[in-house]
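Incident log, entry 3
Record: ABC transporter ATP-binding protein (260 residues)
Problem: checksum mismatch between cached and fresh output.
Input:
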Amino acid sequence: MIRCEDVHKNFGGVRAVDGATLELAAGAITGLIGPNGAGKTTLFNCVAGAFPPTSGRIFLDDEEITGLPPHELYDRGLLRTFQIAHEFGTLSVRDNLMMAAPDQAGETLWNAWFSPAKVRAEERAIREKADEVIEFLGIGHVAEERAGNLSGGQKKLLELGRTMMVDAKIVFLDEVGAGVNRTLLNTIGDAIVRLNEERGYTFCMIEHDMDFIGRLCDPVIVMAEGKVLMQGSAAEVMADERVIEAYLGHGVKNKAEVGA
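Fresh output:
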């Protein structure tokens, strides 16, 4: 579904992404891991249109999307969440979801003045969809709560819910477990699996919690120093000496052998 070919992103003399080539298969939940500074979020930002790559090409369903802005990718069904949730803090959970629905008739002055019945009918439909999302995620008890008052885990659920208000093809999740307690993380994981299995969502997630990655993701892609280091199952990745060295430093294997 997503294909990156020799993607580079430079910031001055810093090569944040240095020739990353990878493919994300449709229908999969792919994990993207690596030590801090590996280039994971920068690659996410290139794919999701936050900024264009310095060089290289990016494809969605074999159509090149290199450098397209986020709103055009949004319309094509490519969405992302952030490590720090970006909610509308003064609006309710339900209103946050309703805001995410695309191409609303009421957003144009012409329709608001001359087609109020159409606007009201569409708003009812969007509200019904928001209520369906709320029920799916099990957050009915905070539906009328201001989003700014939610816990970190609840905000991550809300971000996931906003992707459900769009006909998403692929969702990029940036550290969905950051600042989330274990109970809510399990709830988020359950929702991701259900969206994948029941609604055909494709996911790619950056995450440092390897238990969470191991439960949800296959395959797992490892990045280090801006490049793709390897790809495999979670078990294969966690047992690979190159991955261990990338996370813990060169010479770890030799030190372990000396200690033994």
